[in-house]
Design brief:
With 141 residues, the chain is mostly beta strands. 10% of the residues lie in helices and 43% in strands. The longest helix is centred in the middle third of the chain and has 14 residues.
Length: 141
């Protein structure tokens, strides 16, 4: 049976905002865990001990076109987070392939920093970096 993939069949959402409006036409989402889940240590006698590291932080990058209206909204959320106490910028994050099973979701995510910018002859992209705490993640189709 043939598998199907369509980039436009992704849902990417932060704080109730549809981040898919104005995503890059190339790579638009990257997900990376902050550290390995298991670390192995070998003793001098060859005994291997595996430590279970409770990885709780996942880094996610969402790449938008520089012209996306979502950039203004994310800037406002990040500014509010910087100017107020109590985690005003902490919000749910959700990304899913609607044609497959890949998923990442958490009730606690935040913008790490304002993105770097560059401008040129053609429209560029803006990469928003998020940290997710205790994310539920499934790597599937």
């Amino acid at each position: 049976m043939a598998e199907h993939y369509a980039a436009h069949e992704f849902t990417v959402n932060f704080s109730g905002l549809d981040l898919f409006e104005g995503v890059s036409d190339d790579e638009f989402l990257t997900i990376a865990e902050s550290e390995p889940r298991f670390i192995s240590k070998v003793g001098v006698d060859g005994t291997v001990t595996r430590s279970d590291v409770k990885t709780v932080i996942t880094q996610v990058s969402v790449i938008l076109m520089a012209t996306s209206p979502v950039n203004d909204l994310l800037s406002a959320i990040h500014t509010l987070d910087k100017l107020t106490a109590g985690g005003a910028g902490v919000a749910p994050f959700f990304a899913k392939n609607r044609l497959g099973t890949s998923l990442i979701a958490t009730p606690e995510a935040w913008i790490m920093k304002l993105p770097d910018e560059s401008r040129g002859k053609e429209v560029g992209t803006v990469t928003w970096e998020f940290e997710l705490a205790n994310a539920e993640r499934h790597v599937g189709s």
